[in-house]
Amino acid sequence: MTDADRYRKIGNGKRWRRKGGRMSLTAVNYLGVLLAAIASFAVGALWYGILGKPWMRAARLTPDMTKPTPSLFVISFVCELVMALIFALLLGHFEAATFTDVLAAAFFLWLGFIATTLVVNTRYQGFGWDLPLIDGGHWLLVLLVQGAVLGAFR
């Protein structure tokens, strides 16, 4: 298949869009996905290590209510692994070519899906703005770190 077959002109002829693009699990760098998940897990530990007390106040929790269990850490890591895999698939699908493209994708994924969901959920649950700001900052950092790692492995 030639480039002409894969792409078609749209609009004013200056932009090209992929024709029939598909997400491919075979194109994913799984080492990059694993390292992105590990890095984002570490970022979360650091973030909440620093902001744990303000987060507990914002979430109206006491230290007795937040005793972490091993299963909670496993679930968190698996979720970050899934997030890194889906992020890698999307980066390949949308052909993010530069480091700037990858970081922009991280920001827009965060803004469009994570920040909006956090704000809606926490505000309907009666929490103040401090909780979505703390949690939202964490998830923005997670996506930026995952993007940086995935971008390095592209």
Describe the structure.
By secondary structure, the chain is mainly alpha-helical. The protein has helices at 3-6, 30-59, 70-93, 99-124, 130-152, and strands at 7-10, 15-18. Strands 1-2 form a two-stranded antiparallel sheet.
Specify the biggest β-sheet.
Answer: 2 strands, antiparallel
Contiguous uncertain segments of 5+ residues:
1-20
The portion of residues assigned to helices is 55-70%
Terminal CA distance: 23 Å
Mean pLDDT: 87
Count the helices. How many?
5
Radius of gyration: 19 Å
Order of helices and strands: HEEHHHH
Structural class: mainly alpha
Strand order of the largest sheet: 1-2
The outline comes out as globular
* Count of distinct strands: 2
Strand content: 5-15%
Can you give me a brief rundown of this structure?
The chain has 154 residues and is mainly α.
